[in-house]
Known about the structure:
Blueprint: H1 4-9, E1 15-19, H2 22-30, E2 34-38, H3 44-58, E3 64-67, H4 83-87, H5 92-104, H6 130-141, E4 147-150, H7 157-165, E5 169-174, H8 177-186, E6 190-194, E7 200-201, H9 207-218, E8 223-226, H10 232-240, E9 245-248, H11 262-270, E10 276-279, E11 287-290, H12 293-299, H13 311-326, H14 333-337, H15 355-378
Parallel strand pairs: 1-2, 1-9, 2-3, 3-4, 4-5, 5-6, 6-8, 8-9
Antiparallel strand pairs: 7-11, 10-11
Amino acid sequence: MKTAITEKFGIDVPILAFTHCRDVVVAVSKAGGLGVLGAAGHSDRQLEIDLDWIEDELGDRPYGVDLIVPAKYAGSDQGGMTLSDLVAMIPAEHQAFVDDILTRYDVPELPADSGRGGLVGGSDAAPFSASRADPQLEIALAHRPSIVVNALGPPPAHMIERVKEEGRMVGALAGAAQHAQRHVNAGVDVIIAQGSEAGGHTGEIGTMVLIPEIVDAVGDIPVLGAGGIGRGRQMAAAMALGAQGVWCGSVWLTTEEAETHPAVKEKFLAATSKDTIRSRSRTGKHARQLKTAWTDEWERADTPDPLGMPLQPILVDEAIRRIDRSAHQPGSGANQLANYYVGQIVGAMNETKSATRVVYEMIEEFIESVERLSAQMNG
């Protein structure tokens, strides 16, 4: 295939795979696409280890890195508050509610020697903040990713400058045409038009409407379609709407290589497209995830509203670690609570496959779809 995206990155097929798993990055890049490693949950040391491993495996093949630097978050206008400062801002009512959930669902405590982990482990910088992402950016640029993507809002000016200093490309996700225009004005090279069907942080506009709006708004800047895309027919639809390729995330969560929690993977395989919800319960911003007892608890009218970012992830970080540690026990409270980010494509994710097979099947179905349309046109 030949599109602006395959030409830009020197890849065979315009499929970019967002994933937190280095094995998926490598598998997709080896299959002819481009894997993008999500760094938000990595410690600095683990990011170095994973990028070294990816480069050893891929040789000269391209890959990318995805960071999360929101434009606004608690403490962003106060000179970058530390994690300790932010912990002190969490209301006692919210902490009591989280503690109550864990008690009612009988979720065991973590071992005394477990230390800090998850999003807040290994650093006193606030998660989902510039002070947390900047060291990750420097680690990424000490390696050779072809593109650095900001997953939440316009990349900060200093991030764009640093990436371009090193001769790399900058990408950014957009959930509305005006967001995409701001990205282009800031100097972004690739726009990911992510519709509401997607997993993780999304807006309210569906992919079918969003892609052509953004394509029309950004001129010659190449657009990747995202949200509800996990099969070749959806890829063909995105490209018919003007996208130069696709950005897929959820579809890799049930692959053989994925590091998805086994209990959550089982839930994904059994879920329908109706079993997701946009909830602020994990990050403080609307993020599509699997509906479980966890999201139900936060949706109740008699409970506190989730805090903003990054207070909410700080509040729930240990709770999620406790849940994940015990969720392998079927029927347990932790198992009922366990969830993760996933898009509406989860309804089609009903078989565990290799990431390579996912890529090949997408391309085969894409070709079939295009040939069918061509035959209809010529008929």
